[in-house]
Amino acid sequence: MADKALITGGAGFIGNHIARLLLKKGWDVVCYDDLSVGKKEYVPDGAELVVGDIRDIDKLSRSMHGAKHVYHLAARVSIRKAVDTFIDDAEVNTLGTLMVLKAAHNTSVERFLYASSMAVYGNVVYSPQDEAHPISPTSPYGVAKYASERYIISMSEQWGVEPVICRFFNTYGPRQTPSPYVGVITIFCRKLFAGETPMIFGDGGQLRDFIHVEDIARGAVMALEKAPAKSVINLGTGIGTSVNEVARILSDKINPKIRAEHTDPVPGEPGDSIANASLASELIGWKAEKNLQDAIIDAIEWNKGEMGL
Ligand SMILES: NC(=O)c1ccc[n+]([C@@H]2O[C@H](COP(=O)([O-])OP(=O)(O)OC[C@H]3O[C@@H](n4cnc5c(N)ncnc54)[C@H](O)[C@@H]3O)[C@@H](O)[C@H]2O)c1
């Protein structure tokens, strides 16, 4: 019988790519998602979808029964929106995480991957940022992510679930649910295909580490399979690209007549964030394989298709 993995947020952007990879590797996969953002049609054939909230611990525990690995991705992911909705977000992102961990403990899950974020670093002291970079989140989202990391590591010691924390950097690629708040590449693609002007917050010089979702999914699966318990690992490319540069690449490829414009910076957004991902290479033999110039086509083509063009 195949081993079972449960992915919270498995109908979401990164979760569905992890589900696809696990199915290819022969796992039985359950995607547990409330579909607040994720979509039924993103869940790959062969995976089971359970529609539920992570805070419904009974339903979650039933769905987790027999699972060996849990990937916990369900979260409210908007850094910008979280400034207005932080109490509700903390209920999902922090308390919800504790419930997933408790369900994992109740059901004898062996290993537990937590999808954390570069947002935990906040203010940049040096760059690229390794895992020892000072933690100073500038958004409620980053605070909730870091609190969850610490809860998971401390509770797991008592509960015997082996946790691995991955800090994902800016992820792009197919099947990111469009939202005005998250995913600059998806937002700009949609704007350009609609003939509208993309807006850059601030001067656009801020550097981001854009990483393809398939590299993230592969890194997360390798981390849960191979990393020592309690590892905290960055998953990023190590390459910084400015938001201006991304806007230029997308305009050139989609609609060269439209160029992004600038608007006021938003509070809570971290400064330059580039990963030092050498620990991932050392611990699990992982390295990002896709480069932005070529792999951005996947995001462009997917958004084009979704817009019926
Ligand atoms: N996309 C990125 O660039 C990025 C970067 C760093 C970290 N992350 C983390 O990776 C994880 C996945 O992010 P994503 O980009 O795939 O976002 P996403 O919004 O596409 O996926 C999150 C999923 O969680 C589900 N969800 C939300 N609240 C829920 C609840 N209460 N109960 C059950 N399901 C719920 C949503 O419906 C969605 O399908 C998140 O934890 C996020 O914080 C993402």
Care to describe what's here?
By secondary structure, the protein is an alpha/beta fold. The chain folds into 2 domains: 4-171 and 211-235, Rossmann fold (3-Layer(aba) Sandwich); 172-208 and 239-306, UDP-galactose 4-epimerase, domain 1. The chain contains 10 helices and 13 strands. The protein has helices spanning 13-24, 57-64, 79-82, 86-106, 140-159, 184-193, 213-226, 243-254, 278-284, 292-306, and strands at residues 4-8, 28-33, 48-51, 67-72, 111-117, 162-168, 170-172, 199-201, 207-208, 210-212, 231-235, 241-242, 261-263. The strands form 4 sheets. The chain has a 7-stranded parallel sheet, with helices on both faces. It has a two-stranded parallel sheet with strand order 7-10. It has a two-stranded parallel sheet with strand order 8-13. Helix 5 links the parallel strand 5 and strand 6. Helix 1 crosses helix 7 (213-226) and helix 2 crosses helix 4. The longest helix is centred in the N-terminal third of the chain and has 21 residues, at 86-106. The protein starts with a strand and ends with a helix. Bound molecules: nicotinamide-adenine-dinucleotide.
